[in-house]
Amino acid sequence: MREGYFKEFRKYAVANVLGLLGLSCYILADTYFVSTGLGTRGLAALNLAIPIYNVIHGCGLMLGMGGAAKYSLYRARGDGRADKMFANTLGILAVLGVIFMAAGLGFAGELAKLFGGRGAVREMAEVYLQVMLLLSPAYLLNDVLICFIRNDGNPQLSMLSMLAGSFTNIVLDYVFIFPMRMGMFGAVLATGCAPIVGMLVSLAHFARGKNHFFCIEMLPEFGISWDTLVLGIPSLVTEISSGIVIIVFNILILGMAGNVGVAAYGVVANISLVVVAVFTGVAQGMQPLVSRKLGKGDAAGAGRVLRYGVVTVLAMSIMIYAMVFFGTDALVSVFNSEKNPAMATMAGLGLRLYFAGISFMGINIVLSMYFAASERVVPAQAVSLLRGIVLVLPVAFALSFLVGITGVWLAVPTTELMVAIIGACLINLPDS
What we know:
432 residues; mainly alpha; 16 helices
């Protein structure tokens, strides 16, 4: 029986990690091609715009993970409300899509300025923000489809959807920025094509008749909508926290080291996206199994899946940090097309300090997802909010005041350690 649990966990986790690695690669592709084609200013502008990607993707995961987790629980229990989850989730998606598109039409410039953009950097960031916000419904729908298909027993197709979108983005990034010389508009347009291709791949789930969820005609129900949002908030916070940290760190670093410092942090932030994607892949791969087993009353099985998740992220964190620590110069050089020595020095130090706490980061992401999948709303939101907003911001300001830019790099590992201790205490406490 235990071997069966691990085999099932491996099937979901491996597929999801590979898919999310591919998904994060198109952000890295943007970073590489923008830094090569548009230089330090382009890299700084891209880093200013990334937080909005985190917000959009976070909202998509909030709807997808929240709705799909509840769908799995209802379906395992034989509850008829499982049939309503997908349609209800699409109703919330439509509202959010309209809000994001309106922001793109009217406030892209103000957002670029708010995030610290000045001069040419602001202009490039405004272009990226506006196009991304206008294409936001595609990002949201792609995230929702991937989550529901994974919870419908087809993690391989979810993986293929993410990989197809990522490959499309990487190819179009090169074509639009270099042969077609479309600049920042080309970079964001290539990124916007990725979810569209992903959705086309996801349609195979419906075309083959493998879907157990349907888009039935119904008005959104407040109770179901509330459950979706509450269970999905940890996923939103996990994603959006990256954006919040980037905004705050950009402001702090801009005051201490200018645009070169922001560009250095851009290297750290983009590599961080890949690391978070690996850990999130394990957590999201674990979620359908935890929800399904708890829906059937198998608490011991759900706990065993959690242990598999924790051990997996710990092993991965050791390997990742070894690659970052010993391969720092090579990683920085990929994004330092202008061979700027100041940028290389700052980014190198940042990588080694920032990722010192990645093992705690992985544990926190897994714990948050486990709590959400088991409907333990209070611990799930506590872990997510503490690491994403409540602790990391004051820690960043305090450490930067005490030790300058070194304190900025140390803020995340310090916060993750504190939250991991709190999470370990919460795991054995009942949700009130």
